[in-house]
Amino acid sequence: MSQFRQSYRCQSKMSFTHWFEHFARWRSFIVVLVVASLGIAATQALFRDVEKSQQGTFVVGTLDLTLANQDGSQVAQNITMTKIGSQKQLNGEKTWKIHNQGSLDGDLAFKLANVHNFENGCNEPEALVDSTCDNPGDGEGELGSELSFQVIVGQGDQARTLVQSDLSPDHVDQFAQQWDQADPPIKVKAGQTLEVTVKWKNKPNSLGNEVQSDSLQFDIIYELQQIVKQ
Amino acid sequence: MIAVTRLTDADLTDQEKIAANNFHASTLDFANQSTANNSPKSLLFNVSGLVPGGFQVETVRVKRKGNLGFRYQLKPESLAGDAVLCQALEVMILVDWQVKYTGKLTDLNYQADINEKTDHEDLVVVLKLLDNNQVLMAKTCGFNFKLATVDETDGSSFSDEETLTNQVSTADHW
After folding, report:
1. Tens digit of pLDDT for each residue in A195-210?
2. Displacement of CA B68 from its chain's centroid (Å)
3. pLDDT over 90 for what percent of chain B?
4. Is residue A72 located within the same domain as residue A160?
5. Coil/strand/helix, residue B31
6. Chain B residues whose beta carbon lies within 8 Å of the beta carbon of residue A86
7. CB distance B159–A209 less than 8 Å?
8. CATH code: domain of residue B147
9. Which chain B residues are within 8 Å of A185, Cβ to Cβ?
10. Which residue has the higher pLDDT, A55 or A125?
11. What is the ipTM of this complex?
12. Is the dihedral of CA A32, A37, A39, A40 positive or negative?
């Protein structure tokens, strides 16, 4: 019995010891684990990067485009040509003054909108040579294709012809496209005035009976866009 | 702190429009009409059995139908049939009862202006046979009066033309 007790006590002692040693090993491991985690967290908290921009710019200014006639009168007049065909030769021009009265420089764009080639029906002489005779017949008129247009920037020695095209339905986009290809682009600085002239004439051997009663209508749009410095 | 800057592309713009630019072609057109009722007229003379000293009178209104005034010319063309008769026929043209032409049919070349105010011109046309040569008996002559706008250097690029047909035959004997 006493041997058993002794044995039991020994076994118990051994078990507790064994358990304590076991615990001690695990305790060390747990401590290492905890310390490592704290270290990682602390390490993460220390990652930083800083970037700084030197070029942030806030610009306060104005962009204001005005149009005037060549004589300076402020209500810009449109182009009106009637009785086309009364003479064999047709030519004319119209000049506008483009003024940037804002405080910012701008790039000037030019385009056409609301272009209509109306047939307006056919009388007897026209019907003999024209197969399209609807009224109003938008898109059927021949007048736009028989007129040549130029858009010219500047005057005299400084004049630059930027656009040359007719106004047939297929060529309407040519006005904006050719203008946008100008090299260098057309700029209007703050306070600057620029003259733009639209010229027109009939093509050779044109304005026959096929254009009787035809009409051509369009809007001209000037747009000034802020020049953003890079 | 991480700061990122980016250039703005929200540019300022302004736009002005010249609206409703307009090019409009005019019209040039005329028609031959009856002076009695303005109905279309395509036949002027249809004479049969014409004898020497005989004549026929017809009228035609040359009516402007377009916006533009014009100068027109009246000439015979497409003469067919017996040339001897066509060569013998004579014509007189009166406007406002004033003689504007008198002479051979084959020499006829009458010109007149119809402007934007006058609107029309009324022609009185006399066709006559003065020659009594028997070779002209039982003959026929068909011809057109061609009315056409005159192409002038500083004139319109438009044009129009109209035709009046005519048929004449002489008597079998006189």
Report:
1. 999 999 999 989 999 9
2. 14
3. 87
4. yes
5. strand
6. 26, 68, 156
7. yes
8. 2.60.40.10
9. none
10. A125
11. 0.86
12. positive
User: Cβ(B96)–Cβ(B64) under 8 Å?
Assistant: no
- Disruptive mutation site among B11, B12, B153, B154 for chain A (greatest number of A CBs within 10 Å): B12
Residue of A nearest to B29 (CA): A125
Strands (DSSP E) found in chain A: 65-69, 80-84, 91-100, 106-118, 147-153, 160-166, 187-188, 193-202, 215-226
On whether both A40 and A76 belong to a single domain, the answer is no
pLDDT per residue over B39-86, tens digit each? Answer: 999 999 999 999 999 999 999 999 999 999 999 999 999 999 999 999
A28 and A98: one domain? no
How many separate domains does chain A show?
2
Are the beta carbons of A85 and B27 separated by less than 8 Å?
Answer: yes
Query: Does A187 map to a domain?
Result: yes
Does A51 reach chain B within 8 Å, measured CB to CB? Answer: yes
The rounded distance, in Å, linking the Cα atoms of A60 and A37 is 52
- Residue B94 near residue B74, CB atoms below 8 Å: no
- Lowest-pLDDT choice from A91-95, A200-204, B151-155: B151-155
Instruction: Look up the domain containing B109 and give its range.
Output: 30-170
pLDDT of amino acid A7: 44
Q: What's the pLDDT at A191? A: 93
- B14 near A CB under 8 A: yes
Overall average pLDDT of the B128-152 stretch: 96
Of A84, A87, A219, the CB nearest to B21: A219
Q: Quick one: pLDDT at residue A17?
A: 63
Question: What is the spatial distance between Cα A145 and Cα A166, in angstroms, rounded to a whole number?
Answer: 5
Domain assignment present for residue A124? The answer is: yes
Domain identity same for A77 and A27: no
Task: Tell whether A91 and A197 lie within a shared domain.
Answer: yes
C-alpha gyration radius of chain A: 42
Supply the range of the domain harboring residue A217: 65-226
Most confident by average pLDDT, A33-37, A58-62, A213-217: A213-217
For residue A9, is pLDDT > 50? no
Beta strands B43-50 and B70-81: pairing type? unpaired
